[in-house]
Amino acid sequence: MTIRFGIIGLGNRGYKYALKTIQQSPDCEIEMVCDVAGKNFHQFEGVSTTRIYQEVLDNPNVDAVFIATPDGTHAEIIAACIRADKHILCEKPVEITEEKLKQIYQQAKDYSKVIEIGYVLRYARLFKKVKEFLENGVIGELVMVRATDHIPYGGYAYFHDWHRQRSLSGSLLLQKATHTLDLVNWYADSQPSEIMGFGGLAVMGEPGAQKKFGKPVDKALRCRDCLIKETCEESIVYLAKEKGLTWGEEWPDSCVFSSEVDVEDHQSIMIRYKNDVKLSYQLCQFSGFYQREFQFYGTMGELHFDDQTNEITIYSRTKQEIVTYKSSYVEKNMEPGDAEQLEDFVQAIQTGTPPLSTLKSGVIAGLTAIAAQKSIDTMEIQTLPVF
Ligand SMILES: NC(=O)c1ccc[n+]([C@@H]2O[C@H](COP(=O)([O-])OP(=O)(O)OC[C@H]3O[C@@H](n4cnc5c(N)ncnc54)[C@H](O)[C@@H]3O)[C@@H](O)[C@H]2O)c1
């Protein structure tokens, strides 16, 4: 049975996942696309288009919906999909507030159709292989994890548009770190119990403006109109020229040093899990190089990996033995795991088996990031309820 998709949200993620993954799958076809601003309609020749998502849900030929709208719109659209009885593949994070996460979980937990959340790294080969090694006990019992997200283009990716405002994205812990936090929840095979963190703005936002200009910048300032667009290291003009970062023709360009920025550009988080595993995590939006890096410490050894060398190294504590695993698989999609995630979604629809990334695990990942941000804001340790 071919799964006929409706796509809601055709921004950076939505249209690429639709074209590179859904449209390429032999099991899927795109029936209808929707974007409130009419973005990227031209990429979908012969497919019906709408700016009103309810029209996708009212279409009886749509079996499943892919939601790729901004984070703070997901719960409303998931609820509408449930009313319309559609299968749902929704981008991460599930939502941006604790209230909305808990509410949508209650509304959807007994839904009979598939709900899968786009924690795509659970599906990527290297990350799945790590899970397999840990489950096979190669380092004994897992005790501690250290994880780091290094992002050299944080300004470019998150500080020119809606991601930079807490009212729209929650925080960059919820937007970016959420992948790593979800992975550690999965690897530890447990739920966070106590969470604490520190964070702040060092390079972007008003602190950055004070350092660079000695005063705040006008809220309406955009790179395209800025006098220093050729030399400012955060300008999209400079980055396109110097670093080849050209992800979209209409890439947003509000000044990253604006006082409107109220998310943070660096965070350091500690978590103790219900099974006593401990995590130490750092997110940096202004690093010198890109990497997602993990070290796992077990009773019998260590496992290290990162997503740039694509290597997993296992160090035994009891023998003179180091094992290295290198993934030779070349990812073709926007994100590693994109195609495998879609396969899991299709399989869940066709066989009734639950997906690997469920609404429940997505809600827990979201609550983890929100609790971490709350700890930074209140300087108090946060606790998560048992789900
Ligand atoms: N899994 C991943 O690796 C990954 C990567 C990037 C983005 N994302 C997620 O994908 C989602 C979209 O992110 P993005 O970077 O593409 O954002 P974006 O701002 O580029 O695109 C969002 C699109 O949604 C449209 N939109 C907004 N409200 C709408 C509504 N009510 N109905 C229809 N269309 C609406 C906007 O016009 C815009 O075109 C976010 O939840 C983000 O966290 C996931």
From TrEMBL:
Domain of life according to the entry: Bacteria
GO molecular function: nucleotide binding
Domain called Gfo/Idh/MocA-like oxidoreductase N-terminal: residue spans: 3-119
Pfam families membership: GFO_IDH_MocA, GFO_IDH_MocA_C
Domain Gfo/Idh/MocA-like oxidoreductase C-terminal: 131-377
PANTHER family in the cross-refs: BILIVERDIN REDUCTASE A (PTHR43377), BINDING ROSSMANN FOLD OXIDOREDUCTASE, PUTATIVE (AFU_ORTHOLOGUE AFUA_4G00560)-RELATED (PTHR43377:SF2)
Family per record: Belongs to the Gfo/Idh/MocA family.
Record's protein name: Oxidoreductase NAD-binding Rossmann fold protein
Organism (species): Enterococcus phoeniculicola ATCC BAA-412
